[in-house]
Structures
1.
Amino acid sequence: MLRAIIFDFNGIILNDEPVHFRAMRDAVAGLGMRLEWDQYWERYLPLDDGRCFDAICADQSVSVSPAERSEALRRKVALYQDYMRNDFPLFPGSAEFVRHSALRYPLAVASGARRQEVEETLSGAGLLDCFRIIVAAEDFTLGKPHPESFLLALRHLNERLDGSSPIRPRECLVVEDSVGGVQGSRAAGMRCLAVSNTYTAGQLAAASADRVVASLDGLTVESLQDLFEDPS
């Protein structure tokens, strides 16, 4: 039985990966590194800012001091905010799907994005009140495909239940767009709806997504109930 839904953020709700790429590209350029779109998409997309920056440095054999790392990451955040300019490009149908789902189930976010970024976007889109829990980059250590963020989101949801029996992982649906996210949700013992906003349907299916759709536009949570008919 479906009892809770955990959403990824970037790539599911907010369509800002090109902006993240541009900001990271320009931030590392100041340290003499070059970042191409194809490289970012294939290698760094699932990583949070810190892990992305460290991987770029390692791949290009560039050593930086802690102060240089801190300044580059600060600059990346500042550039991202400047490029967004209070614009919140949502994927088609994502807001409607979130609002409809929130009427029936407790919702959480499990994202490698910074909390400020998540909350500002959800607030600007009128979606913040739909979510009971937000797990962001500051809240966990091991990024996807590790299941830590999903399990942490579920733990916090259970802490807010009003006398109900605890929600089990197999009663959770995760909505993801990345291969690492799909793998992390399955490692957590949760069902996964994958949206091919970022990776191909074939890649997401190969990662063991329970269902793959092209978009959340027009999708209803009722149409996903059959994923939970066999909870084993």
Note: The mean pLDDT is 94.
2.
Amino acid sequence: MKSKKVHIFQESNPEKLYFCFLNPVVMIKRILETSIRDSLGDGKAIILMGARQVGKTTLLKNIFEKSANVLWLNGDEADVQELFEKPSALRLKQFFGEKTTVVIDEAQRIPEIGLKLKLITDSLPEIQLIATGSSSFELANSINEPLTGRKWEFRMFPVSFGEMVDYHGLLDEKRSLNHRLVYGYYPEVIIREGKEKETLKQLTDSFLYKDVLMLDQIQKPEKIVKLLQALAFQIGSQVSYSEIGQMVGLDSKTVEKYIQVLEQSYVIFRLGSFSRNLRNELKRSRKIYFYDNGVRNAVIANFEMAETRADIGKLWENFLTSERIKKLTYRNIWSNYWFWRTKEQKEIDFVEEKDGKITAYEFKWNPDSKIKPPKAFIENYNSSFYLIHPKNYEEFLL
């Protein structure tokens, strides 16, 4: 029987959000919940950024579910935008009333939002202010200067491998690996079992067309769809803006601008090349990955089973790279990361530097792959080397 949503409820433990279905019951606690709870009440605004539908509002509603003193505002709504047109501390205080917490969803839709958040933070210190945004390009640029020293900033992604392991255990999540490689980790995709394709189409239409294509920088919306498709096919390869431009009919500067917008809207991210000592290292190359495998596959309309896919290596590399970045971000692990390649095509998929130590990782879908680490890299950088495959990847992601 297919899953059917009944209602949402919560038991005595306030840290677990329960989505109740006839089959199954889904309980996914988000890692950021603890960090946000710990940041409440210290006089700073909380900024929560991430793509639409990754669970930002659900997370906040879970935190404040038992509180009646929260005012919820949506920056997408015209009357909320009007409220902030010419705000004064007195007017805002009257509007907020007795509420002690104000949550502004999609805050980037409000013009000059940074100055308005600063006004609330400075003039109404009794208010805990929280703002969410699905476009770091607009929101981050608006808040950084006005809110310097006055904010805690968090990034939220689709559900992570680690969060799913916490939900139903390592064994069950490892059994779901092939499914995740194709459909990804968006919360609604996980919940709507059996309707993953339809859900991903709705999700990609939502944030690609509402959040990306409506931005002023996008002059040719049909081109950005072609650009995404081209990038989806080039996962794991070095990306040349000029070559991509020739494929989709754009000049290289426009390609770079569109890629920046897609990155700042949490659709894709760039990985630069590592280069320090060796003459033949590629110094200005980049790879581009998707934050979610399901979105990548939706862009190219390919939901073929993982077991029979010709691009399984690309899916595996995208999965491991995005999940590793989720782990580093959520655990506040301060490290730098790149890929490495030489002109002679010697390469390493993922290079990480933490506390002066360099570690190299190579990703292979076949656990029996025989890979020798590049001698020049290991010797020059005194690096450790690990091969990550389906039999040991949990050590890399947990």
Note: Residues 312-330 form the longest helix (19 residues).
3.
Amino acid sequence: MGIATVRGLKIRYEVLGDKGPWMSLITGGRRGCDEFLPLGRRFAADGFRVLLHDRRNTGASDISLSAEETEEAVWADDLQELVSQLGTAPLFVGGSSSGARTSLLFALRHPESVRGLLLMRVTGGEFAAQRLPENYYDQFVRAAREGGMAAVCATDAWRERIAGNPAGRETLMKMDPDHFIDIMTRLRALFVAGAHLPVMGVTEAELASIEAPTIVIPGNDNTHSSKSGLAAHRMIPGSELHRLPITDQDVPLIPFEDWAPYEDEIVRVFGDFMRRVGG
């Protein structure tokens, strides 16, 4: 594990493997990078160097809240600074859910740093557009209104963040609740502005402008429907599609850990893709 100072914040990262092409894997939601340790170790064993990191406001990295841009855009710029410091660019970038959205924005904002995109469980559709604002923002606004920042710290999501980085509690408790509510409200508005697109957070024109080689593995729940993955594949020029032996399920969310039986196939498919397009 390493700690890098990225745009003024301490960002925790980990490198798996000691040879081969570089790749970065980004987890979904606001979950820390440990979720991808099993998958990352498989890629390392297959001959790749894997960069994992806790995005700001996740895992053991610092907490810093602002609402000038979407969280995914901020995470994409943080990753650019991190890979610049580590000297790992250009590299393959990919992830699941919000990690896939961050990867897409990384390719749009920093195309010179991308060798290819590895997209899993692409988010889109009306179910996700209705569900995710509550998960990411609304519940925390209610907590702050009802009990101030102590109530925010007591929510399951922020309690998990504080467990990963205890200093985060002090950061949150120093915030004025009204300022926190304002940030969450503005972040929500930015998020919702792109939530109803076929591929959440990225316009069709932006997808059409992506030149990096891309491969898509669709998801299979109501938040990450196969329809959204197919839309991404259709809209990104020249992208490849791989469908796992799974079917769509009428459930809100399938945890990524439930995809563990398919990790060997994911490594094989993504690994073959990276060797083909990366030389």
Note: The chain has two domains: 2-124+199-278, 129-191.
4.
Amino acid sequence: MVHKTALEGVQTRIRTAGGGRTITLVAASKMQPASAIRELAAAGQRAFGENYAQEALGKQRELALSNQAELDLEWHMIGPLQSNKCADVARHFHWLQSLDREKLIAPLASARPGDMPPLNVLIEVNLDDEASKSGCAPEQVPALAAKIAEQPALRLRGLMAIPEPVPDPSRRRAAFVRLRDLFNLLRIEYPQMDTLSMGMSEDFELAIQEGATMVRIGTALFGKRNPGLGARNSTGQSHAPKP
């Protein structure tokens, strides 16, 4: 199977770049059909990342995995989160990688069912102040971390970022270093933080070399998306996929 072969290739590259460290692979399955998730799951992949809550819930229903039990899959919200979708994420995901503002914290915490473990949360950082991207400014991270840590229903796990996609590898590496340094500084106050999510299909090896513990891979696993297709976001509006 094509996806199984791609998974094995990515896993080999991750092991090589990691030099023995454990790196979590999140398969970025935005705009991919449930059948592609099923195929990767059958090959051993467990963590899947989605950009839109509505799209993800549809796939969970199609896979009959809404209770996360059948194949023990782990669902990550990796796209920008709208306030009106906090309850969906709190109830149906294991991880939120894209928390970037305080107003999301209370709704997430209040909607997390009491019989579920705390929602794992990463703070998304906009390292390069790109207007087209979500994420908080680096200087806002400590205040957000403090607010998350106050909520028993949430578990602060670390940081996530999508650096500016510049062609110069040295500039991408420098961005990963900045996020790693911020992560290490924050861990002095929050030693429970253990996750640094950075690196995608075209730069995940660089990210791992600079300390990533989690990478989000889409194209290298599923192939290129059709640029003419749109995705329905959590409000039902159509958006073209980002690279």
Note: The CA atoms of residues 34 and 62 lie 7 Å apart.
